[in-house]
Structure formats: structure tokens, C-alpha cells
Amino acid sequence: MQANEQGNPAASVLPDASSNLSKKAQVADMFNDIAGKYDFLNHFLSLGIDKGWRKKAIAEVQKVQPQNILDVATGTGDLAIAASKLGPQNIIGVDIADQMLEVGRKKIKEQQLEQIISLQHGDSEALPFETNHFDAVMCAYGVRNFEHLAAGLKEMSRVLRPGGKVVILEFSHPKKFPVKQLYKFYFRYILPSLGKMVSKNNKAYTYLPESVMAFPEGKVFCDMLRQCGFKEAKARPLTLGITTLYTASK
Which residues contact 15 (CB under 8 A, 6 or more apart)? Predict the structure, then answer.
């Protein structure tokens, strides 16, 4: 197992601790394997609440009236598709899992959004774009999977123009009784069993709760955003703290 990245305990949480592959390679393999069931499980396991979370994220993106938007760890493109309703000129989604991108391209074609949204293979730690290029950079439930979190956040800052906005959705930990206890029970026992049964992947939905529990959240993550080139970092818990909406500017 690789060592913890400084300040990010989630760095050492791996889909397969016995593998010699890097976290990045394991994450790509894992998402490629579950790509065909990913959207169904996303909506099913969150009871459909994930759609509302994305709407709140897009409402934050809208505040800078973006024309050029980057969606990091875009997966199957749900957040990029939601952002298309803002009427931007261009949305680019990047991800390291090619099978997830293929699912996303089919959805984009079905919704006739090819003129606005393009998806491409891309690494969050080495984004293939010019500095200060995008008006907004988004990421939904992807930063937790970065092998080197600080490197990925610095790249997101680099490609964002001055005055632009970063919007990040990530799972977090409810603090209040009984939501805290119910959430932990669901994440540890129900979600892994349902995820394994539908996706046929033994590790993906065990990795999910483990990585969520280890990920630095709230003030700690806001501090990381500031250290990586952002300012005015804020954390807004949603649905009793099940997920958190982070925003910051450059």
C-alpha cells in the first residue's frame, strides 16, 4: 500500500490494497468495470437525491455566467449535461476512465449536446489546457479519488481564470443523531451489498464508504483549497451533511 499523501488520509484508501498498481490505475480500472451500471447505481443508492445536489452546484456555477467550463472527473457526464442548461459556449469533461466517457458520449449524443459538450481522457494532475482558460471548473464526487489531491487542486486552480469559480461536490459525514448513525450503517452495510449485487464488482462499493470516511472535509478541505491557489473557500453541507458543496474563487 502506498503512503498517505500529506494532509489527505484518503490517499492510502485503495480499491484493492493487495494490488501493485497505483491508486490512479486502480480507480480507472474500477470505474471502467462498473461504467455500465454507474448511472443506475448513482441514482438508486442516493434515492435520487443526487440530482438535487447537482442542481445546487450548477446554481453556484451560474453566478459567474461562464462561457467556458471544465468538468474534472466527469465520469458519465451528468454534471456537464446539467451545466449545459446555463447556455455556455463550451464544456469540456475529462476523466481517466475511458468506459465512463463512452457512456457519457452516448448520453450527450442522445440529448444532441455534441456542439456544446466534449469528453476526453484527461488526468486531473496534468490537465491538458492553457493557464487561466476556464471561467468555471467543476468536479462532482471525484476529488476523493485523486491519487495526489493537492496536485489535482493546483491544476484546477491553474486552468481557472482570475475571478473564475471552482465548484466541488463531495460526500461528507453527518454530525447529528440519528442521521449520523443511520448514515454509517447504510454506508458500511447496505450500500456495499447493493452495489456489489448490481455492479458485480466486489470492491467498488466497499472502496466508496472507506474513501468517504477518510477524506478531509469541511474546514480542512477549505484550507487545502486556499493552500492550492483559491480564495474565499466555503463549505455548504447539503441534506443534513450527507454531501458538501464547496465553492472558491481565484
Answer: 23, 26, 27, 29, 30, 203, 204, 207
> CA nearest 237: which of 175, 165, 144, 191?
175
Residue 50 C-alpha cell reads as 443526487
pTM (two decimals): 0.94
Q: Take residue 231 and report the three cell numbers written for it.
A: 480564495
Beta carbons of 215 and 6 less than 8 angstroms apart = no
The helix or strand, by DSSP H or E, that contains position 70, with its residue range, turns out to be strand 68-72
Closest alpha carbon to 46 in 238, 177, 221: 238
Peptide bond into 9 cis (omega under 30): no
The reported pLDDT for the residue numbered 191 is 84
- Whether residue 117 contacts residue 84, with contact meaning beta carbons closer than 8 Å, is answered with yes
Exposed/middle/buried for 55, CB within 10 Å: 0-12, 13-18, 19+? exposed
Check if the beta carbon of residue 25 is closer than 8 Å to that of residue 5: no
**From CA 42, how far away is CA 210, in angstroms rounded?**
17
Residue 95 has pLDDT above 90, yes or no: yes
| Domains identified in the chain and CATH numbers | 9-249 (3.40.50.150)
pLDDT digits (tens, 9 = 90+) for 216-225: 999 999 999 9
Give whole-number Cα distances, 158 to 130, 131, 166, in Å. 8, 5, 11
